[in-house]
Amino acid sequence: MGAEAQTRIAAAPDLAALEALRVHFLGKQGTISGLLKTLGAMTAEQRQVDGPRIHALREAVTGALAERKAAMEQAALEAQLASETIDLSLPAPEAQRGAVHPVSQVMDELAEIFADLGFSVATGPEIEDDWHNFTALNMPESHPARAMHDTFYFPNQLAVAGDDGSPRRMLLRTHTSPVQVRTMMSQGAPLRIIAPGRVYRSDSDATHTPMFHQVEGLVIDRDIHLGHLKWTLETFLKAFFERDDIVLRLRPSYFPFTEPSIEVDVGFALEGTRRVLGGDGDAPGHGWMELLGSGMVNRNVISACGLDPEEWQGFAFGVGVDRLAMLKYGMDDLRAFFDGDLRWLRHYGFSA
Ligand code: PHE
């Protein structure tokens, strides 16, 4: 029986056949298992003779099965290696190189321009609470302006308790203005910061994406007035668009967190259908384009942040970074910013 088992194991063509043989010899109903069961009925003398022989047979068959299995696996591995050889003489696939994204590029440019004007960069969390995003910015619970922000709220169960114990709902910040609040509270006055970063609103079309970027500017000091705001914006926009003929038009507007509030338009010239920034928007062939929101920080905001509005005043502005990039580089679809398409980057001259 030993020799027959050896032959059949050696001839097994694959792992399935080998497993069938194992069951045939060593399984519960197997032939060798059957022999082992006969030992109980034997006389002591007979058992002394047959016992070691049956056990040796089982050892031999177990060993042969294991050996054959290892050989099969080795052969399979070698076949796989042989079929997967790497041809080192083939040319390597061309690696796609990325570039600094226009949004990052613009944020770096802004940080540089404002650093020259004495501003530092401040940051804050993108997951905010409604106190920092709204209440401290003079938008209490029932304020209608809250509804204008198309806010992404987290479920009510995730609300946290504020300093006064009242619940604060968590949300994705709808603007970078809460960074004003956080910085005034943590650093006090005087202050000169810009706060670039991601903001979120439930909105999507060619000029709106649910996530976009803003940069907030804030100056808090003694005797700050609108003239400082106008000069700062003019200086910044001339440096950013690299043109000395940038002309601004300031229009009265409304934001809860500024008083007075000012919408800033920038003059452009029509070249064909293209709007090129620069020049007086009232001149023939020119027009005005709405660019950013700004104003003198509302005294309610200054006191909510723990400062005395009699001593400290300031101005603030907020502008879309994506919009600045679109204007500077002539891009027309905001959604393409987030597609990660290298051809788009190259088309606008961004490459490594
Ligand atoms: N936070 C405003 C917005 O997102 C922009 C703004 C900032 C306006 C600062 C005035 C002052 O709409």
TrEMBL record:
Belongs to the class-II aminoacyl-tRNA synthetase family. Phe-tRNA synthetase alpha subunit type 1 subfamily. Mg(2+) binds at E259. Pfam families: Phe_tRNA-synt_N, tRNA-synt_2d. Binds 2 magnesium ions per tetramer. The gene is pheS. Its main location: cytoplasm. Its EC number is 6.1.1.20. Its cofactor is Mg(2+). This is Phenylalanine--tRNA ligase alpha subunit.
